[in-house]
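DOMAIN: structural biology
WANTED: fold as tokens
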Amino acid sequence: MNQDYIKPHNWSIIEEGFDVEQVKSSESLFSIGNGAMGQRANFEEYYSGDTFQGSYIGGIYYPDKTKVGWWKNGYPEYFAKVLNAPSWIGILIEINGETLDLAKCKVSNFKRELNMKEGWYNRSFMAILNNGTEVAVNVRRFLSLDLDELGVIKYEITPVNQNATIVYKPYLDAGVHNEDANWEEKFWEPLANQHDSNQAFITARTFKTHFEVTTYMHNSIFINDENQNAAPSSVDAAQDKIVFTYACEVGKGQTVAIQKLGGYTVSTNHKASELISAAQNTIQKAVLQGYATLLQNQIEAWAKIWEMSDITIEGDVKAQQGIRFNIFQLNQTYSGKDSRLNIGPKGFTGEKYGGSTYWDTEAYCIPFYMATKDQQVARNLLTYRYNQLDKAIENAAKLGFKNGAALYPMVTMNGEECHNEWEITFEEIHRNGAIAFAIFNYYRFTGDYSYIPEKGLEVLIGIARFWHQRATYSTHRNQFVILGVTGPNEYENNVNNNFYTNYLAKWCIDYAIEQIRKVEKEFNTDFTRIMSKVNLNEGEIQHWQQVADTMYLPYSEELGVYLQQDGFLDKELVKVHDLDKSQRPINQKWSWDRILRSPYIKQADTLQGFYFFEDHFSKDQLEKHFDFYEPFTVHESSLSPCVHSIQAATLGRMEQAYTFYLRTSRLDLDDYNKEVEEGLHITSMAGTWMSIVEGFGGMRVKNETLHFEPRIPAEWKAYAFKINFRNQILEVAVHQNETKFSLEGDKELVVYVNGNAVRVAPNRLVTV
């Protein structure tokens, strides 16, 4: 299969030529979403070739019973599946009596375009059917940002060589299944359907979780842009499917189009009894506006998003396309409007990983949303975890922890743990630290302390209690140790004293105690409320402090580096460049046993600690650790290249930083991991943004102030980005020999560039 078939373009993802081998990959790459729902770029018409059908709704999931060979205490009962939702996009098409199916006719001039600037997906092609009819087809689809329960399709057909009878059969289909169902069961129960003139509704309920969803459609037929006000000639209604039929006689060269409105209304946003009327209300608004206005509103809504979140790169189209694709997908996945939602690792583009919440949100995504949107969006993501604190305490209790110790889940939809690989569920406990770090990071960036006394302190206390109980006192070392863990590097399981985990545990306890003291001093009412609620006393805090003060951190005096875990130096330390290329990726070529015994690192682990706590270490220490660990890193996690890109840039190694940047920004576009057909890597896309802003731009927040150490890859002429820092919008433009700053707002901002203070006045360009 062609690895890089996507055409380089500044604003669009473009595929030219039809190749059945690329269909599933393109279904992922051309996916669309609007924060509330999304779908893979499946063909609207019937397709008999290999395809992965998928439409998804934010927050709708199913608890698929865990499938394991040997049940262990504390195992989650279920794995949360992001549900393949009933489909509203389908339109069967018959041309002169033959079904249009791209797998069975002669296709030419095939082109797809995902226009990221304006937020729409377009597909066009010529087809010669077996009956000899030749047609030109153009299809445009978008999911409205303004009316987030609405999707729009305009499907146009022009007969080229003869008159034609064209039959459109738009349908709703609730008889869908998940590709990744553990027990081959169906997840949806159709409850009711109804249809009236050109609109139809199917209401279905998920088994177990009982979410109710009405999937709807409304159809209009146009010939040469003139509404035919046609009613369906027949309606075929089954319990889980409704099909309308519209037959049109068109002359050669005339264009017949169906405009199909569709989407979902959901019981999480409406009363179950009002789902159909809510759908009718959305249809009414959309029909009133009409296709042209809906599209124009879409273009304007995306222009507003890009105004703040765009990163421009001059002189490198592939790099530009890569970063915009990443920013576009992040904005399609999460809008920040609903604090019940979060950012799943596949977003709305596939089912893998259960589409739920991971530590990726806190470690990688919050910085992007914090800096490119209103701070309320990042606060919503923190509130999401606060609202699930009781479940985190429950999760810890299932594993034997007590007294309000909280263990946040590795994977969740509602706060319950639903990941069922023991070495991750029970051992990848570093996720707890990322949640505490996000609270620290939010305050550091926004200056909004109010979250901590209101909500965050309770989270920090639950996490500190967990670390205190999870640590073991070693009489042999006379220090506290943490045994049986998996760090971010999942190619080492069940190790003792993973540096990153131990360092994070120590920091979490210190930070929690520091915030307890601050809240006691400055927010006494909140302090009294929280202490009586969590029943915390000074004696317990002293026990925590003892763990933090005497936490063991594995270190090699000989090499002058912290060790990823106690036994790291016992491995056969063969570097990646000495590994036969035919053995890569090792996760597809090697047995798990062999991977676990190898020194190979899936993603930044010790270096993840150096990324979070950069100011705890000197640049010399970073360099030493980077030079030691990077040569063993295979980067087989999507979350790996971005951290390495930032650190390579910090060390002034721009060529290496640029290589890592391209890898993170084009991970899916160039299908580095040979798995894009399963869906996109949404959460790692936030790491791409960090690679530019924190890596090349060198942006840090120190002592309440923005600091920059701008660098630029040799391949670029310039790049620019915007930061919303404490409600002031700063634009930074980096050129090969100068950096320009401009500010929107009404008060001056002092920033530091390479250690020197620079005053930026509103609406005045400052060049350094």
The chain has a mean pLDDT of 95. DSSP finds 19 helices and 33 strands in the chain.
